[in-house]
Amino acid sequence: MNQLDTPAEEVPGSSGMPAPLPQRASAPGSPPLERDRYVDFLRAFSILVVVVWHWAFTILIWGPTGPTATSPLGFTSGLWVLTWLFQVLPLFFYVGGYVHLRAWQRARARGEHLGHFVWRNIRKLSLPALVLATVWIGLGLGLGAAFNLEWVGRAVLLVISPLWFIGVYLVLIALIPVWFALQRRFGVVAFVWMAGLVVVVDILRFRAGYEGLAYANMVLVWGLAFQAGFYYEALVRASRQLDAALMWAGLFGLVGFVFSGLYPGSMVGVPGETSNMAPPTLCIVALLAFQVGVAEMARPGMRRWLDRPGPRRAVEVINRFAMPVFLFHTTGMAIGRGLIYAWNGELAEKTAPDLVWWLERPLYIAVSLACTLPVIWFFGRFGHRRPTPAAPRIAAA
C-alpha cells in the first residue's frame, strides 16, 4: 500500500509535511461526515447567482422574428472578469456530486439498489422540468396559431432555454454508476484522463473545426466537476496549503488560457464570441479548480457566519425552494418583462447599458421575483409533495 492509499489519519506526521489528500477514504462507499451547512450554503449561493444574473443582466432585443437575448458583457469593457467568480455552474455540479454520493451512502444503508437510486433521482428532477416545458410549448403553439404570432416560438425557446442545465444534470445522474466505477478503479487518475480528453476535444474544435465533437465536453467537463464532489470530504480534511494551491492553480490557468488568445475571457456566452460554455472548454476545468479553492479558503469564516440563526435560516429557506426558483425564474422574468413593457408602452430595451440601465437593475430583480413566487405557488398546489429531510436535497428541492 502506498502513501496515497493510506487514510489521512494513518499517515505519519513526524516529517512535518501535511498529510496527503486521501484517495480511497473519499471514494464511493466511505463513511460520511455529519451534515455540512456549508454545502447547503454553496448550493444556495450558486442557484441564487444564476437566477439573479438572468433577472438583472438579460437584455432582450426585439427584431422581426422575435426576441433575442444578450447581456452587458458585450458592451462593458472588463466586466467579463466577474464571470470568473459568478459563473458558478462548476461549483454547483461539484456540490451536486458530493450530495448524490452522500444520498447513495444513505440509500445503500437502507438496502436500495443503485439502479433504483439513480432512477428515483432522475424522476424527481425530470418531472417538474417536463411539466414546465410542456406548458410553455403548448402555450406557444396555442398563441401562435390563434393570433398568428411568428415570434412566440422564439420567446418560448428563451423561457425554457435554462432547462439545458437540467438536461445535463440528468445525464450526470444517469451516469452515476459509471462515475462510481471510475473512482473505485482509477481514483484521481480518472480526472487526468478526462481533463486530457477535454484538451483533445478543444484542439479538434478550434484547430480542425470539428464543432460537433465539442459537445463531448458537456459530459467530460461537467462529469469531471461532478466526480470532484466525491472528494469533498477529503478536501475538508486537507490542509490550507492544498486549498490555496487549488485556488492559485485555477486562477493562473485561467489567466494563461485567456491571455494566450486561445479562449475568450468571459465564462458565459457573449454574442459574437466563441463560447467557453456552449459547449464548455478547458477554461471551465481551470474555473472549477479556482472556485473550489476559493470556497475552501473561505470556509472558516463562512462556517462562523452560518452558525448565526439568521444566516442559517436564510440558507435553509433558499435551499428548500432552490430548484423551483431555478425552474420557474425565467417564467417569472417573462411575466415581469411583459408588465414592464405594458407600463412603458414599448418593447424596446437599451442595448448599450448606461447609468440609468444600471440603476434600474434592482427594479428588474424585484419585479421578476414578485412574478416568480406566484408561479411557484401555483405549480406547487398541483405538483409535488414537500421533500422529506432524508431526500437528496439537490435533486428533490
The whole-number mean of residue pLDDT values reads 84
Model regions low in confidence, pLDDT < 50 over at least 5 residues: 1-33, 385-397
- Oligomer state of the chains in this structure: single chain
Helix content: 55-70%
Radius of gyration: 22 Å
By DSSP, the count of extended strands is 2
**What is the helix tally?**
17
Largest sheet properties: 2 strands, antiparallel
Order of helices and strands: HEEHHHHHHHHHHHHHHHH
Distance between the termini: 42 Å
Account of the 3D structure:
The chain is 65% helix and 3% strand. The protein has 397 residues and is an all-alpha fold. It has a two-stranded antiparallel sheet with strand order 1-2. Strand 1 and strand 2 (66-70) form a beta hairpin.
Attribute tags:
single chain; 397 residues; mainly alpha; two-stranded antiparallel sheet; 17 helices; disordered N terminus; disordered C terminus
